[in-house]
Amino acid sequence: MTKSRPYSADFFDLQLRFAARVAAVSGLLFFDAVGSYTNLYVRLAMGPCLDVMNPEWLTYFAGMTKASDPRGWTHQVHRQRLHLPVGTPSEESVGCFSYARAGPGLVRLHFNTGDDLHDSPLSDANQSTRQGELAALLARLKAWSGDSVRVLGASWLYNLSSYRRLFPEPYLAGLRPIEHPYQRMPLWGQFLNRDRTVRPQVGPQFLADIANASSLTELAACFPYSVLATSAPAQCLYEHLGY
Fold this sequence. Notes:
Elements: H1 9-26, H2 30-37, H3 40-43, H4 55-66, H5 70-80, E1 92-94, E2 97-103, E3 106-111, H6 127-145, E4 150-155, H7 161-164, H8 169-172, E5 176-177, H9 185-188, H10 202-212, H11 216-220, E6 228-233, H12 234-240
Parallel strand pairs: 3-4
Antiparallel strand pairs: 1-2, 2-3, 4-6, 5-6
């Protein structure tokens, strides 16, 4: 299996430092804070859902707590496990878009910036390309499921007009902020450049803000964007695309 591009050590440091602040203000054990308030379990290819008794997770955490450089240890483990599948596998993908089953009659839409893009995937110049990819993906969904399925979306990207413009109004009308999904990339992805390094303005500001936070509520408010979620019948997306 081909290895994917690694995330930067700074991305893991960002999450470990956030977990440390969660533990400090809440009284949680650091072990519990890392498991419940970061994306590390999934990002290290331990599985799609947290299992605190997973032997590989316990081995990672024991090594991390003993390491002189916890972020370096985490990055090393990440690189060693790049060949392993991460999260829930996609059913279909076209360009930057994919979907995965999320339950009976439900699919969850995902967006990935891609490793081979040289400019912003959501720029004006790329809008028609993204719309074409979304249309092709939904054509496959319609062929597989017909009109009975519902499409779910949850991402910080719905805060951006450049992303929202790809979707029809009936789908966007359902957007609502949800409680931060701390274990999922729809929250943590807002800190990343396309090359999976931490954005130079956003990351340091986040670390400065969490250092001054004194409660879980204040820590939650340090994220630049909330995750917005929606769901709609796939039919409304098909109609928007002329199917």
